[in-house]
Specification:
single chain; 421 residues; alpha/beta; six-stranded mixed beta sheet; 18 helices; 15% strand
Length: 421
Amino acid sequence: MKTVSKVILRDLVACSLLLSSAAYASTGFDKDKVEGSITFYTARTDLVEEGVFKRYEQEFKQKYPKVTSVNVIAFADYQSGLRPRMNTADFGDVVFILPSVPSSQYSNFYLPLTGMYDKDEIYYYDAWKDKMDIYGISSGSSVEGIIYNKDVLQKARVNTPIRTLKALYAACEKIKKIHKTPFFINFGAQWPLQQFDKLPLLIEGNDRIYENMLNQLDPFSNPQSSYYKSLKILKTLIDKKYVEKDLMSNLWEDSKNLFVKGDVGMLYLGQWIIPQLVDKGADIDNIGFMPFPADNGEYLKAEISHDWAYAVSKFSKNPDTAKAFIKFMLEDSDYNKISGFIPTVKSIKPQIQQLFEFMSYKPEIIDVPENSSRFIEVTNKSKIDFFTGGYIQDLMTAKDFDKALKKLDTRWSRALEMTSN
């Protein structure tokens, strides 16, 4: 999917030429059958608690008067919440596709969404494709890098952008000296640690890192491997006390408040966090965004990834209503703005100004790839929960870091052997 990042980069640079809204003749569903009740399982607990989805329900019902209700249920740990329900075939109508589901199994759980959009109308059109059908549509996409508090870095006399890993550690040291938390990793919340599952892409310099691991028996403990280097960066940040003092508590909401108060210098996340910081009271002009310096080389790199993909349950009793709701979320709601996403529908203009600062540093953009069925099979057998932060949390709290890495290699190599035939 290397062409996806190039297209998004081109569109961001020329975004003044983009339209402000989208309208298409094709829908992929029967409008006359948009009726009744549907259930949507989401990961956005905050938007449920704040009543945003209740507003979306009313707006959706205004557009489709025969709809009686949209029941929205949120899970803080989405994969753990949804997966058991999928085994019962009772998992609502609209869901997000779990990364642990291989593409070869999409048809067991989801209905095809082919026909809702043409390939040139949306980003990541074929990211959730199996054979001739697409089963998922991205809810939005994000460029990921360092969100920074301009005032904190200025007080610490840190110049931006930070172009090398050595300079990042030096910046953290300067911020630490003014008694601020240099780099908040949200260790206790766990899921933000998935950034260090993506950082190997930048270290490797291409999107083959995960597929290459299928030919490696020691991808974690080998000092030359990109995964080792990524995890070592996190370990260094922790060991040098550049991160939050309380590692075990879930401080996700607190981290945003601390950033707003000027107690935190940097976060490693996507631009989607920016609207949340503003909602907490941050001055939009005090928020900066730059690429993460993955090495000490000359060039900056950055990863771009889609967020969760909307899908319709194969067992939905109201599939046309479910599809209409997905289209409503992508085109008619303000979800893109609230979430800080680069919209999936190409003709809708991004609204996060920090994206243009980020792109001004001219990083090489690398797509976070869709993992192959083979990679997912091996990870499932190894029981290494990639992209959740769980195994990283265990690794960083292990008494012997190097020994723990070798244990991961043992699990990985055994899984490779188990799935070799």
